[in-house]
Amino acid sequence: MNKLLNKPQPLHPTPYHDESLSGYLLRFSYVNGIPARFLYGKLDLFNEKRTIKSYFIDLDFLNKIDLEVLKNITNNRTADILNMTIAKHTSPDIVFCGNRICRDDIEIVRVKICPFCLLEREYFRKIWLLGNVTACPQHKVVLIDSCSICSEQISWRKGNIFLCRCGHQHKKSQVVLAATETVNFSEYIYSMCDLYKGKLTFRNKSEFIDCDLLTLNRMHRFLGREITTGLSIENKYRRGDISLLEYVQVQLNVIRILKSWPDGYRKFLNSLNLTTYSNLYYLERSLMKTQRVNGYLKPLIEEYLLYVQPIKEKIAQEEEEKQKSEIKEFEMMVEKFIIYEKELSLKRKTQGLLNINEVGKILKCQEWHIKFWMMKGLFNNIEDGLGNLIPLVSLKKFKRTYITLKEIQKKLNTSYSQLSRKGIEPVSGLKIDGGRMYLYQKKDIKILFK
Fold it and tell me: What is the pLDDT of residues 196-248, one digit of tens each?
């Protein structure tokens, strides 16, 4: 094995400028006719784990020993090897072809390839690692992620991404023509990575949102989730819940939004029918939460706020008018009630009847005092359905018969204790029957007024 690895060219293929290190090592194994696990097994990265579960190492940290091993085996410079990896950035972001992107934007399990590109030169392009690149802008076809013969998924977990276990070479696979929007979207991403040399369809900034790749990927993922009302369509594809073609169908809707920015996004918001506070709250909360956790949704938030401002103003105006209407209706109801009460009070007075409130004002005490005395039988009351009514005759009899301690104190400088020492006891009060106001018979205190 060591003799085979130490052979001179052509067993040491030269890496391409846009080649993935993982793809290069698998290509190196394929060209030399050796199992990839033998080559990967020489790395400390896997010696510690003792098992090789994935042949994708572009995002892994290679120590000096591993770099030296790869340098000796592949006959490449350390700089060339590092150039094929993905440079780290502030966590969780990484640098990809000069662009800052999120680590989650990289496919580390499923593999997407263009058969026509492989026919021209059989190596794995690093750009295919990006989750939202689904078409080849050079050949205008949808990338494939499974064998066209046996349908087995192409994966970094397998030792060869160019040749299926059924013996089929992926460069000979049948392909599907990609939609124009998907091709244009890939053109845009390729150009941002300085990998597309053709004339861009979208050169005018007004025809496509002008933002960095990290922002573009964030918005792509967010809109994909909102359109499918749930888990991100990209996550569903990665989990194997949907096929690549199903993912592309939803991706097309997202691309149409981003293609004619900001009108495309406004049409999307129109389709959500944001006319109620609940719908506004749901999307706004979702936007702000994603912005707080992941960042880089500023273009979406800015356009959303511009879009919903007149809607919120209209809803606020409608709410204000509704409140004014309710207040006016209540005031009219109160006015009618006051008029009704006045008419009812006048009618009662002509009949010689008073309600508890009126009696309380005359006796200068609370309504619950009156109710207590009614329970004691000190008033003759009439039940009319709306409350107890007291005949004027009964009130006059009460005033002739009883006097409160409060009235006594206004006329005489005395107290309950002083009255008790003189042998004058109340007929009702706290110490007598639990009443909250002391009530005396006038005949018992006449002597005091002489």
Answer: 776 665 544 445 677 889 888 888 888 888 888 777 788 888 888 888 999 99
> What's the pTM?
0.69
With beta carbons less than 8 A apart as the criterion, state whether 103 and 93 touch: yes
pLDDT tens-digit map of 87-102: 877 667 888 988 988 8
Q: Compute, in degrees rounded to 10, the torsion defined by CA atoms 368, 369, 375, 378.
A: -150
Q: Tokens 């592949």 map to which residue?
A: 74
Q: Which two tokens stand for residue 135?
A: 């078409």
Q: How far apart are CA 319 and CA 312, in angstroms?
A: 10
Amino acid at 118: L
DSSP structural state of residue 108: S
Whole-angstrom distance, CA of residue 396 vs CA of residue 442 = 13
Helix/strand/coil (H/E/C) assignment for every residue in 81-106: HHHHCCEECCCCEEEECCEEEEHHHE
Q: How far is CA 137 from CA 117, 253, 256, 266, in A?
A: 11, 19, 17, 28
Residues 420, 223: Cα–Cα separation, whole Å: 86
Q: How far apart are CA 436 and CA 434, in angstroms?
A: 6
Q: Are 153 and 110 in contact (CB under 8 A)?
A: yes
Confidence tier at 352 by pLDDT (50, 70, 90)? confident
HEC string of 249-311? HHHHHHHHHHHCCCHHHHHHHHHCCCCCHHHHHHHHHHHHHHHHHHCCCHHHHHHHHHHHHHH
User: Parallel, antiparallel, or unpaired for β 439-441 and 402-404?
Assistant: antiparallel
- Note the helical H segments in 295-355: 298-350
